[in-house]
Amino acid sequence: MLKRRQNETGWTSAKTLSEALPFIQRYSDQTVVIKFGGNAMGSEDLTRQFANDVVLLRQFGIRPVIVHGGGPQIGDMLKRLNIKSEFVDGLRVSDIETVEVAEMVLSGAINKSLVQAINEAGGKAVGLSGKDANLIKARQVRKDLGFAGDPVDTDTSVIETLSRDGFIPVISPISAGEQGGSYNVNADTAAGVLAGALGASRLMLLTDIEGVKDKDGNLLTNLSIKDARALMDDGTASGGMIPKLGTCIAALDAGVKAVVILDGRRAHGLLVELFTDQGAGTLIR
């Protein structure tokens, strides 16, 4: 007869699941849009852990929608091709060569590897870009940014159909222009626009920092829209944090219940944020 080994681990796991139940019930059948940043894709282990967590959300009855970035990966490819790249106000300047490379990296390699990771974890992921089914239409942000795009219209019917049937949409932010062509839309911005259009319960921005910090480097765990604007106005928020906070404000104005900026490099941050009292990162509402 085989004897089962008993220790405290099983009891601790059962207690954790029991405490998570009210949160699972709260988010059941709710849409959660998750932006998985390129900086959070630091290793295969991180991507695999993220994929496992996303599949768990789906099995709990939550409808995850993934929008991914890939800034570091685009930067690496541009260097390999000897194409100069620069940023203005946290956005990549995208000439025709740059946007072609961005589309190749985002809608190709990254999108398909993330889809594969989720499928291997037991989910049913489908890869899309902003171009598919007129998901996102974009126009030029500013002339000096080239083909950097700003969303002007969305059609989320394909996401709603996939989510309703149990699939997990995985979306590259490369989008079509109003008169054709491709635009490199900031992934945070794309995630925020889609979250608003879907009436998401949560927008979660996974990046390579633990959240929004004050001037002394202390984590700010709760912010209002007014607080977020103040951080942008007084220079506390800079670089890539500027479009992130702008996305948070726009998403909240569009009806998203709350936005969270959290560290995608920490294992199971999604689960800690959604299923515990203490949460993770910075909550803005």
Mean pLDDT: 91
Strand order of the largest sheet: 5-8-2-1-11-13-14-12
Oligomer state equals single chain
Main beta sheet: strand number and arrangement? Answer: 8 strands, mixed
Q: Which architecture would the CATH scheme give at its second level?
A: 3-Layer(aba) Sandwich
CATH fold type: Carbamate kinase
Rg from alpha-carbon coordinates:
19 Å
Strand content: 15-25%
Number of strand elements = 14
Indicate the percent of residues in helices.
Answer: 40-55%
Structural class, please? alpha/beta
CATH class: Alpha Beta
How many structural domains in the coordinates?
Answer: 1
What does the model show?
The chain starts with 7 loop residues before the first helix and ends with a strand. With 285 residues, it is α/β, with parallel strands linked by helices. The longest helix has 25 residues, at 96-120. Helix 2 (44-59) crosses helix 4, helix 3 (71-80) crosses helix 4 and helix 6 packs parallel to helix 8 (241-253). Strand 3 (87-88) and strand 4 (91-92) form a beta hairpin. The protein contains nine helices and 14 strands. An eight-stranded mixed beta sheet has the order 5-8-2-1-11-13-14-12, sandwiched between helices. A four-stranded mixed barrel has the order 6-7-10-9. The radius of gyration is 19 Å and the shape is globular. It has a single domain, classed as 3-Layer(aba) Sandwich (Carbamate kinase), CATH 3.40.1160.10. It has helices spanning 8-27, 44-59, 71-80, 96-120, 157-164, 187-198, 225-233, 241-253, 269-275, and strands spanning 31-36, 63-68, 87-88, 91-92, 125-129, 136-140, 148-154, 168-172, 174-177, 182-185, 202-207, 222-223, 258-263, 282-284. Helices cover 42% and strands 22% of the residues. The model has no long low-confidence stretch (mean pLDDT 91).
